[in-house]
Amino acid sequence: MYSALLLGLLSAASAFAQTNPLRSVSNFVRQLAERVEPAVVQIHSVGFTASEKSALQLQSNRSTGSGAIVDPEGFIITNAHVVGTARNVQVTLPQRATERDRFHSVLKPSGKIVAAEVVGIDRETDIAVLKVPDRGLPHLQLADSEQVHQGDFVFAAGSPLGLDNSISMGIVSSVARQIRPDDPMIYIQTDAPVNPGNSGGPLLDADGRIVGINTFILTQSGGSEGLGFAVPSNIVNSVYQQIRKSGRVRRGQVGVVAQSITPSLAAALKLKQDWGVLVADVASGSAAESAGLEIKDIILTLNGKTMENARQFGVNIYQSADQTVTVELLRGDRKLEKKMAVLERPRDPDRILSLLSRDSNVPRLGVMIVELDEKVTPLLPPLRRLSGVVVAGLASTAAEISETLLPGDVIYELNNTAIRNIAGLKSALEAIPATQPIALLIERQGQLQYLLMEPH
Predict the structure, then answer these.
(1) CA pair distance 309, 52, nearest whole angstrom
(2) Strand pairing of 256-260 and 277-282?
(3) Are residue 408 and residue 306 in the same domain, yes or no?
(4) What is the rounded distance in angstroms from the CA atom of residue 356 to the CA atom of residue 342?
(5) Please, what's the b/e burial string for 80-115 (b: 16 or more CB within 10 A of its CB; e: otherwise)?
(6) Are residues 367 and 432 both part of a single domain?
C-alpha cells in the first residue's frame, strides 16, 4: 500500500516538474541570457569633461558603460555619454561560446579587450557608434519599437557598476515617456533594474531583440528605483544608419517654434480646435517666414500627414533636411497650403570636443587643441585662414595661465611663427624659454587679435 502511494507521489512530482510554469519561465530566461550575452560588451573610455569649477575648463575623466554589437563586422551601439570626449576607447568582448565551453567552473575568464574607433556621436539622442577590428562577431537585431506595448516583458543587459555580463528583468512601464514638454525625444520607461554602468546596454524583448538602448534612470538614492529609460530602437536605428553612412546625423530646421495645443490653450486663445500644433514663433529670415507661415497658424498636415502634437512635427522636420515639404495650415477660418524648404541645421561647435586626441593637451598654454582640418572647419563660422589649431577647451590644471584663450579661438601664429598643426605649435613652444612672453595671433568671432601670455 505504502509503496503504491510512494510511486503515485513520485509520478505526480515528475509530471509537475515537466509542466511547472515557473521552471519553463526560468529555462526561457536562461536560454535568452546565454544567447544575448556574447553580443553585449563593456566599454572603457578615457577623455575630458567639464570641471566642477567651470564649464570652460576640462578635466580628465574615466568612465565605464555597456554596448551592444549590432553587426558581425564589429559595429557597436552605446550611449554618447559613455564615450564622451574620449581620447581612448576600449571594448571588452565576451568570450565566444566555443571558448567559454572549454571552462567548467562558474567563474569564467574575462573577455578580450580591444581598441575601438568612435565612428560618430549624436548628443541629442545620446547615441554613439563604435567599431572594433574583429569580424564574425555575435550580434543582436534591432526590433521595431512601434510594436512594443505597455506590460511587455523586457530584459536589461550590461555592466551595472562595472559588473560585466549582468541581466535583469522587468516590464515596459511606458512606451513613449516624454521628459520635457514638446521635446522631440521620447523614451521607453521600464522597471527592469538599471544602474550606473548599464548605460549604453540593450533593452531586449522576449525574442532577444533590441527594443531600446538604456540611457538614464530617475532616482533619489542613486540606485535603481524602477524608473529606467531607454532610447527606442527606431530612433536608435535611424541614428545608427546615418552615422554609418556619413559619420553624423543630419537634421532639418525651418525656423518655427511649434507648441502642442491643449484644450486650455485653445480656450484661452479661442482656437478652432483643441489639439494639434500651434505656430508660437517664426524666426526672422527663416524658411518658415519665406514660406508665409505666421504666429498663431495651426499646422494641420505635413506632406499630407496629420500633425497631432509639436513633437511629431519636430521629428518630421528633423528627418526632412534639404527637402521641400508641403504644409497645410488653418489661419482663422481659412485653410492654406504652403511649400516650405527644410534646411540642414548647422552642426554643434561643441562637437569639436569629440575630436580630441592624445596630443591635444598643451600644458604650457593650459588648453586642449585640435587641428583645423576638414572635420573641424564645418563646425566653425567662416575663418580668415585655413590652417592653424583650434582651442577646444581649457585644461583645469592650468586654468590660471589661460585666461586669455577661450574655446573656439583659432591660433594662427606664435611669436611670428606660423602654426599649421599641433606638432608645429608644440615645437614652437619648445623653442621659447619659459621666462619669455608668448604672443599668439588668434581669430576670435571673426576678428584677428594678438594675445600676450606673460611668464609666471
Answers:
(1) 38
(2) antiparallel
(3) no
(4) 32
(5) bbbbbbbbebbbbbbbeeeeeeeeeeeeeeebeeee
(6) yes
Query: In this structure, are residues 109 and 170 in contact, taking their beta carbons and an 8 Å threshold?
Result: no
Q: Per residue in 376-396, is it b (16+ CB within 10 Å) or e — as a string?
A: beebeeebeeeebbbbbbbbb
**CA proximity to 157, closest of 28, 37, 29:** 37
Residue 402 has pLDDT above 80, yes or no: no
Q: Helix or strand or coil: residue 123?
A: coil
Residue 330 and residue 430 in one domain: no
The answer to whether the beta carbons of residues 152 and 171 sit under 8 Å apart is yes
> What is the number of structural domains in the chain?
4
* Mean predicted confidence (pLDDT) in 253-259: 91
The CATH number given to whatever domain includes residue 244 is 2.40.10.120
Give the 3-state secondary structure of 150-174. CCCEEEEEECHHHCCCEEEEEEEEE
Last-in-domain residue among 205, 220, 250: 250
**What's the burial of 345, exposed, middle or buried (CB within 10 Å: 0-12/13-18/19+)?**
middle
Using the structure block, give the residue that is written with the C-alpha cell 573656439: 408
Domain region containing 71 = 28-250
Tell me what pLDDT residue 399 has. Answer: 37
Read off the CATH number of the domain in which 306 is found. 2.30.42.10
CA end-to-end span of the chain, whole Å? 101
Least confident of 21-30, 100-109, 257-266: 100-109
Does residue 166 share a domain with residue 51?
yes
433/411 same-domain check: yes
46-50, 103-107, 236-240, 368-372: range with highest mean pLDDT: 236-240
Which residues are known to be catalytic? 81, 126, 199
Residues 100 and 190 in one domain: yes
Mean pLDDT, to the nearest integer, of 112-119? 92
Q: How far is 410 from 352, CA to CA, in rounded Å?
A: 12
Name the grid cell of 353: 570636443
Last residue of a domain, one of 228, 250, 272: 250
Burial (CB count within 10 angstroms: exposed 0-12, middle 13-18, buried 19+), residue 217: buried
Rg of the Cα atoms in the chain: 27
At 366, which helix (H) or strand (E)? none
Q: What is the pLDDT of residues 322-353, one digit of tens each?
A: 899 999 999 999 999 999 999 887 765 556 77
**In sequence order, what DSSP letters do the residues of 381-425 get, joined into one string?**
---S-S-SEEEEEEEGGGGGG-TT--TT-EEEEETTEE--SHHHH
Nearest Cα neighbor of 352 from 392, 393, 382, 388 is 392
CA-angle at 202, arms to 196 and 208, nearest 5°:
140
Residues 93 and 18 in one domain: no
Whether residues 186 and 302 share a domain: the answer is no
